[in-house]
Amino acid sequence: MPVLLLFVCFFLFSCAHQQKDAPTHPTPPPVESALRAPEDEAPVAAQPVAPPPDGTREAPQTVGSAGEQKPPVKETPRTLLEEALVMVKNNAVQKRWSARQDDIAVYANFSIGGVKFTAVYDILHASLREGGYFQVPFLIETSVTGETLIGNLDWHIQHDDSGVLLSFDDDYIEAWEGAFALFDRYGARVTFFVQGKPLGFAKRALARGHDVGYHTIHHLNLSQVSRAVFIEETTSEIAAFRKAGIPLRSFAYPYGLSSPWMHEELFHSFTILRGYGVTFRLYDAAAIKQGYIAAKAIDNILYTYDKDFHAIVTLMLRAVKFTGSENILPLCTHNISNRADWGITPARLEYLLKAAQDLKLKFYCYKDFM
Ligand SMILES: [Zn+2]
User: Cα(296) to centroid of ligand 1, in Å?
Assistant: First the structure.
């Protein structure tokens, strides 16, 4: 995949020295010094490519017949590349993302005058400037010649509909309740997928603006039980919850394991079903309302070191905000504890909440999509 390859190259380029002296936070690449000053450089090698841009700007170079004095062709591709640079700087191209687990690439494909360009943004190393905006280093490559330019994009964070959809599974009620004040501090609303019978916790969580979904009675592997047990585990307590004033409209599969027939069955009782995985995925509200989403796990067991957790959270949340005003990132974890493998430390949770708040991301609950 050219985009992925390009990203890898750019990443290696920008991080080459950081791999060695790692464990601290990586420093931004020396973008300014790497930015080419085109006028100081020798002309690019003759380009067999780059047809003139739709005749809008420079006079189209007439393709001369033999013997005719050809105008210098060196300016055309260089100008196009510079034009591409301006387009990216002006945010005039559509930004996209791709991801495989935690490898998240943010890029744009566009063309000028028939020449294709790819811009790859290094949002992880964006730096916060005075005035509260980010400078995002990027690299542009022409698809035809492979020629590249590096620049910086000024990124001003706006309020919009982008956000995070954070949820907690299982039955860590004391730890969750202990974090209510922390959630309040960042204006965060979250969803707790609880087990068993209705408890006072669910009412108190709802009263504080959070949401409560269901996570079965006994946390069995639903792919290994009979249909009767499946129904019992997933639906037999719903009426009791609703009678207690807990709507219970969303459901999280234990271990994230599901099958189409389970979806079909559960849509009779729940509006949104949630799976679980390690890959970064974004949704918009309409996609969430379709009924099934997979949340990205952020448990301690997946990130041994805080610095790795901080980096992936920074990268993910910036990708959410940077690539679309309606992007929503479903995240999930379990306990809130310094010791739990399946859970998040209070410090990591606070890092996540603060990072989301700083990026003006909304905190969504599952009930917001019903
Ligand atoms: Zn669970």
Answer: 14
Convert the pLDDT of each residue in 305-346 to its tens digit: 999 999 999 999 999 999 999 999 999 999 999 999 999 999
44 membership: H or E segment, kind and range:
none
Output DSSP code: residue 171.
S
Which residue's structure tokens are 């929503």? 328
Q: For residue 196, report the distance from its CA to the centre of ligand 1, in Å.
A: 12
CA of 255 to the centre of ligand 1 (A): 6
Q: Is the dihedral of CA 225, 231, 232, 237 positive or negative?
A: positive
Pairwise CA distance, residues 190 & 365, whole Å = 5
| Residue 266 domain boundaries | 163-369
Distance 219 CA to ligand 1 centre (A): 6
Going from the Cα of 169 to the center of ligand 1, the distance in angstroms, rounded, reads: 5
Q: How many domains does the chain have?
A: 2
Looking at 155, 180, 207, which one is the last position of a domain?
155
Using the mean position of ligand 1's atoms as its centre, give its distance from the Cα of residue 300 in Å. Answer: 15
Q: Do 244 and 334 lie in a common domain?
A: yes
Say whether both 147 and 178 belong to one domain. Answer: no
DSSP string, 254-308: GGG---HHHHHHHTTT-SEEEEEESS---B-HHHHHTSEEEEEE--GGG-SSHHH
d(CA 299, CA 38): 47
- pTM of the model as a whole: 0.80
> CA 133 to CA 348: how far, in whole Å?
24
In angstroms, what is the span from residue 326 Cα to ligand 1's centroid? 28
